[in-house]
Amino acid sequence: MMDFSVHRYDLNSNGFTSISNIYSPTEVDEITAIIDKANTSNDTFRKSKDLFAIRQFIKEVPDSASLIFNDNLKQVIQQVLGAGYFVVKSIYFDKPHSSNWYVSYHQDLTISVNKKIEIEGFDSWTVKQGQFAVKQPLEILENIFTIRIHLDDTDENNGALKVIPASHLKGVYRPETIDWTKEKEKVCSIPKGGIMLMKPLLLHSSSRTTNNKKRRVIHVEFSKDSLPNGLEWAEQVYIN
User: Which domains are delineated in the chain?
Assistant: First the structure.
């Protein structure tokens, strides 16, 4: 019997937690088979020698939804996050075995929205592959949770996330100001079929792949907040 209270505590106190065996090997294979059949010609797909990514993943690969939101994941969302949460962003990342893609320490400080509207507190607008992103008031970001679904065994040798525990409690925390005499780094190794839950304000990074093994991850963000003045989430998927 899973002790959800432990994961709830870790997520709120440390900014992250991980849970194994959310998906069986068969379920993982079914998810990856659906991804392999996806039409990659749309603007939301990005493909290079270092990275294959699908933005608005659930929208672009809708057949994956019933597999992703299996009974195990629904229980985690209900018991760890709580009621009323819906998907506001989803991305699929495939970091190939030969990838030299490196991501330095950062926080996830923007949300994806449907259009640009000038609203007080919303600034630093950008557009990537036709999708608007904006920095928003901190209280909106503090109510977002991310679940990362691992389709491969992932450790420090193939790009597992490195995090600074409890850094999400310090608001906007610039990486250049990290005091390594006080902070400690944690490598989040996650087995195939497991998940990592994290807060967007948690400082995190990802190293280059050194063991010639892939790292495929589905990144899904959840909120239960409405946006103001006609602004809407770029994705808004409710879980049945």
Answer: 4-223 (2.60.120.620)
